Amino acid sequence: GSAARSIPGMPGTRPSAAAAMKRRRFIAAAALGLVPGMPGMLRAAEPVHAMRFSALAPGAALPPEFRPYAFAGQERRTQYDLMADAGLTVLRARAEASTAGIIRDLKVDPATHPLLAWRWKATRIPEKADLRTKAGDDYAARLYVTFDLRLATLPFGERFGVTLARIIYGEDVPSAALCYVWASNAEVGTIAPNAYTGRVQMIVVESGAAHLGAWREYQRDIVADYRRAFGAAPPAVSGVVVSTDTDNTAGRAEAYYGDIEFRARPTS
Fold first, then answer.
1. How far is CA 50 from CA 54, 184, 263, in A?
2. What is the reported pTM?
3. What residues contact 29, with CB distance under 8 A and at least 6 apart?
4. Cβ(125)–Cβ(221) under 8 Å?
5. For the chain, how big is the Rg over CA atoms in Å?
6. Please, are residues 115 and 222 in contact by the beta-carbon 8 Å criterion?
7. CB atoms within 10 A of CB 70
8. Shortest CA distance to 195 belongs to which of 138, 248, 131, 141?
9. Using CA atoms, how far apart are residues 92 and 244, in angstroms rounded to an integer?
10. What is the DSSP string of 48-97?
11. What's the pLDDT band for 45 if we cut at 50, 70, 90?
């Protein structure tokens, strides 16, 4: 009988030496990220853009995936608009005895993208703010990271508290969140429960007026921060929120938000 002819890529047949060599070269190129359309296995994962204001036009309306948020019945709301700053589009927030935020719903795996990077600038901070009290719960700039934590995993008291808050304030109240803030007077590095709920943990990354008018850049490990705040590994990220508010102190604040993204850890 005649010998079976080798057909590269067909099961049950032996590829030729040339085909085998070609396949090895293809795999090596893909691993190095040299094949168009194929992610490199050795290349660091691309960042996840949570809020990319620099890709928008100054004066334009915010895209629909950026949802405005304010408590029901809130008469005065913080004003947000896109504007140019040093050649880049940023989000300006102006609060006058007001509160409101911008929400972006998205899913991020902290195991692959544990680093949160952003920049912001404050030009005015609320004078009477106090991290420890409800009456002082105002900030020139806040950045919330919310997590997809199922209520069933919480103790009854905490589960009841979140459920009640959602009835009063709406379904956007998170079951767990880290809130990075530019505080008026709290010490940088402070991690403390929010004055209203322990399900939101406040992390002070900037404080006071020393750096007013200057852009400040940050990179935080949300896995480490979540463990410090809640004593456990974080579930998936469910969204981010920016908020400038002065409703409790009836003061004024102004801040500018640059791009916000989640990054992979650098590879060695």
1. 12, 26, 10
2. 0.78
3. 35
4. no
5. 24
6. yes
7. 19
8. 131
9. 10
10. EEEE-GGGS-TTPPPPTTEEEE--TT--S--EEEEEEETTEEEEEEEEES
11. confident
